[in-house]
Specification:
single chain, Rossmann fold, 2 domains, four-stranded parallel sheet
Length: 400
């Protein structure tokens, strides 16, 4: 059986995020299980993804020219943002225009690729990809499973009529958590399936013994609106004098030089250049997590965070925000971590509880490790394989 993974609207080469990691993990796992796997993307750069792929995975870049194929006029972007609140009432002109611009540039190449590859199933990772796919004549004969990697409101975005119709053409829509199901059901009539991310189960865990130096870790791309590392820096600054043996370490690529420079200035302003470190990307996630004592996770929202679950697998107690979707389900307050109200002061108060209480860190960390065991990768990939085989069989039966 042949599976086509579709990522044709956003860049892919050299991007380092949780979704990119899931894409490459899925490609590798299905190739390992004997599937023929094709990963189709659209990136100005030539090359391979940041996360390594098995040699059996076929890569097709619809671009590779060194420039973006799709250019959205500024006036269209402005119009989209101005009409975004009213999109659900039919004011979707600018959204549909952007869809048309993308289709005019990408559709022919994508359609030719699908016609030649003849996959048994297509799995797009963004609804923007779906909007291109559903206009492809070659794709109309192939079942589509749309995966939503964030809470539905974020992953689906403004739901104008054309997007609703596209979603309702899918054989299934996948969400990461049961709590996300209702968010899709309210917006469109489509079969929904819930499958979480699989997370590597580490054999080692952190040490809870007394030591001379302690580390708070954050593993995530540096990004201001979702990941919010600046809040964690302010929270740590409130505690730095009280806990001189603690340091704060950020691992991840910056989404922009502007935000990285802002964080550097923030660190210098607090006088903590010797206590807070922007470490860059790490290829040794397990080894890095094992050096930590607390996982600080100030995200405003997540789909289902691999980084957070991997921290739990390593036995790290975590601190996050109570209002952050997904984070507030994975972190169970007082059981495997602590949840704080919005803002640096509340985050600092939660961190203080853990930094000052080694038995609490041990109890929450050990509970976190047990909690994360339910996301064992083999079980998750079995669910995915069963789903895709079921959808393919349904299509064959319908066409028989």
């Amino acid at each position: 059986m042949k599976l086509m993974l579709c990522w044709v609207v956003n860049r892919f080469i050299d991007t380092v995020g949780g979704t990119e990691r899931v894409v490459c993990g899925m490609a590798n796992e299905f190739a390992r299980r004997g599937w023929s796997v094709l990963l189709v993307f659209n990136d100005p750069k030539q090359g391979v993804p940041f996360y390594p792929l098995r040699p059996e995975v076929e890569l097709i870049n619809l671009n590779g020219t060194g420039r973006d194929l799709v250019t959205i006029p500024k006036w269209v972007k402005v119009g989209r943002e101005l009409t975004r609140p009213f999109c659900q009432w039919g004011l979707s002109y600018f959204f549909e225009r952007i869809d048309r611009i993308r289709k005019n540039v990408i559709l022919d190449k994508l359609n030719d690729t699908i016609a030649e590859a003849a996959p048994d199933l297509i799995l797009p990772f963004f609804t923007e990809d779906l909007m291109v796919l559903t206009d492809s004549p070659a794709a109309k004969r192939i079942p589509i499973v749309q995966t939503l990697r964030n809470p539905p409101k974020i992953a689906i975005g403004p739901l104008y009529p054309a997007k609703r119709r596209a979603l309702e053409q899918c054989a299934r829509v996948h969400v990461l958590l049961e709590s996300f199901r209702s968010g899709v059901q309210k917006q469109c009539d489509v079969p929904i399936v819930v499958i979480p991310n699989g997370v590597t189960q580490y054999t080692e865990q952190i040490s809870y013994n007394k030591k001379d130096a302690y580390r708070i870790l954050n593993l995530a791309r540096l990004e201001p609106r979702q990941k919010q590392q600046h809040i964690l820096i302010d929270a740590f600054a409130l505690l730095a004098d009280e806990f001189p043996s603690w340091t704060l370490h950020f691992y991840g690529a910056a989404t922009s030089d502007r935000y990285r420079l802002k964080l550097e200035r923030q660190i210098r302003r607090h006088g903590l250049s010797d206590r807070i470190f922007l470490e860059g990307v790490t290829h040794k996630v397990n080894e890095t997590l094992l050096t930590g004592d607390i996982f600080g996770f100030p995200s405003s929202r997540e789909g289902i965070s691999n980084a957070l679950l991997e921290a739990m697998c390593a036995g790290l107690p975590s601190v996050g925000f109570r209002a952050a979707p997904s984070v507030n389900e994975l972190i169970r307050d007082g059981e495997n971590g602590l949840l704080a109200e919005p803002g640096a002061k509340s985050l600092a108060a939660a961190l203080r509880r853990l930094m000052s209480d080694a038995p609490l860190r041990r109890r929450l960390g050990e509970n976190a490790r047990r909690f994360a065991s339910q996301f064992e990768p083999e079980k998750v990939w079995d669910q995915w394989e069963n789903l895709l085989k079921e959808v393919i069989a349904e299509k064959k039966k319908k066409n028989a």
